[in-house]
Every structure is written in C-alpha cells, then in structure tokens.
Amino acid sequence: MIYRLDKFAENSINPITDTAVHKLPIDDYSKCNNIWDMKKSPFTEKFHKEIESGNRTVFVYEENSEFIGEIAVVFDMKDSDYTIPKSGFIYHGLL
C-alpha cells in the first residue's frame, strides 16, 4: 500500500479503536519518551534540531492517547547509505 506523506499530516483516526497516525507537532516531541528512552539516548537533541529545521518529519502511532510507535522521514542524512540528495530516501519501517 502506498501512502502520500501529505495525507498523513491530517489525523488518521480509526473509529473502532482509539488509534491514530499523525504528524508529530514539535511541542509533543517529549511524548516520544513513551517509545524510546529520551534521557539515555544520545540522539534526543539531534532529532529535535532536525525536526525544528525541517530535515526530519516524524509521524507517530497513538493508541489510547499514548505514543506507541513512530516513523521518521529524514531528507538529508549526509550519508549516501541513507539518503540520496534530491532523489530519494531509505525507508526503515515503523518502530
């Protein structure tokens, strides 16, 4: 199945269960601690800066108002194993 990123920017809510996939607002970044330990991770500040700069777009999977998964689109990793400038990116999946 192919999803358009602009469609994910709108909340996608499942009416049967209290689940949603939506673009992460920067103000909710700290809620990702429910997914990964932000205090111990050396990437916490780096990811925050990338989101602020627009280089990283994060979509979160939310269930019963708790973040339980996320996926990030990074536009330039400065590493050709991950991104190809102005051409594409590597998809790694939802955590």
How does this model look, in words?
The protein is of the alpha+beta class. The protein has helices spanning 5-8, 44-53; strands spanning 12-14, 19-23, 56-63, 66-74, 83-84, 88-89.
What's the short version?
The protein is α+β, with helices and mostly antiparallel strands and 95 residues long. It has 2 helices and 6 strands, in the order H-E-E-H-E-E-E-E. The strands form 2 sheets. A 4-stranded antiparallel beta sheet has the order 1-2-3-4, with helices on one face.
Keywords:
alpha+beta, 4-stranded antiparallel β-sheet, disordered N terminus, 95 residues, single chain, two-stranded antiparallel sheet
Question: Which helices and strands, and how do they pair?
Answer:
Blueprint: H1 5-8, E1 12-14, E2 19-23, H2 44-53, E3 56-63, E4 66-74, E5 83-84, E6 88-89
Antiparallel strand pairs: 1-2, 2-3, 3-4, 5-6
